[in-house]
Design brief:
Length: 270
């Protein structure tokens, strides 16, 4: 039997360091994690997957009936994308419509040719009626002796004595009648008289002629006078004509009938 003896160590010699070391907390955590890993390996893996795998597991798979592009990245980022400026389109200019201009008269509507006047020795009232007929013919722009009839409210015998008389005379041209208010002063050697009328006749032909002459570059002209009509004297709204110029713009012209039968047109708004 062999007996082992321990080597002699003096009492004051230092004790040899033990081979055990106290484990640090970090090492304990590592060991715990390792043990946990072993436990997980033996259990269900799905319970402790990483965060990315967990997010994917909660996202449902797109349905086969979903519209294409429902999960497009462009949709997710379109709210933050800087919108691109929309290109500005320069509108194509509309071509100017140019109409054929009407021939524009250079002079006023021609005065109609008048029949001979009564002789100087003719009765005064006959000469007054003739003068009133010429006023109607000049205003209308035409003469129709057969279609013209004139009458007065006084006879020749009523105005023989010296004095001032007021009466009326009517002149009918076709179906248009004009009433004149007459003031006559009878003297020894002469008779002075004057007239006034609220309306005078105007033909459509004359109205269109004067509107064409006075309008700006007319291409079409129509007036509210048909054939022959009575028109108010001295008012800017006596008659109306509509003029379309060569640039296809429509302008309204208002005509004023003057006592001498002339027509003066002005565009609307002037």
């Amino acid at each position: 039997m062999t007996r082992r003896t321990r080597p002699f160590r003096p009492a004051d010699s230092p004790r040899p360091a033990r081979l055990r070391r106290t484990l640090r907390p970090a090492a304990l955590v590592g060991l715990a994690g390792l043990a946990l890993g072993v436990t997980v390996g033996c259990g269900t893996l799905g319970a402790l997957t990483n965060s990315a795998d967990s997010a994917r597991s909660r996202t449902p798979e797109p349905s086969s009936t979903a519209h294409q592009g429902d999960i497009s990245l462009r949709k997710l980022t379109s709210a933050t994308d800087t919108p691109k400026p929309t290109p500005t389109k320069t509108p194509t200019p509309t071509p100017t419509v140019t109409l054929t201009p009407l021939p524009r008269p250079t002079s006023t509507y021609p005065a109609p040719k008048l029949p001979p006047a009564p002789k100087d020795e003719a009765p005064e009232l006959e000469r007054i009626r003739y003068k009133l007929e010429t006023i109607v013919w000049a205003s209308a722009g035409e003469v129709d002796e057969k279609g013209t009839k004139s009458t007065c409210s006084k006879s020749e015998d009523d105005i023989i004595a010296l004095g001032t008389y007021k009466f009326t005379c009517d002149v009918r041209l076709d179906d248009v009648q004009t009433r004149f208010a007459i003031t006559a002063t009878v003297k020894k050697s002469e008779v002075n008289w004057g007239w006034s009328a609220a309306k005078l006749p105007v033909t459509e032909k004359k109205a269109v002629y004067e509107a064409t002459r006075q309008a700006f570059r007319p291409a079409r002209v129509t007036c509210d006078v048909t054939d022959l009509e009575a028109v108010e004297v001295g008012t800017s709204s006596g008659l109306t004509c509509w003029v379309t110029d060569v640039y296809n713009d429509s302008v309204t012209y208002h005509g004023k009938l003057l006592p001498n039968g002339a027509l003066a047109f002005e565009p609307d708004g002037s």
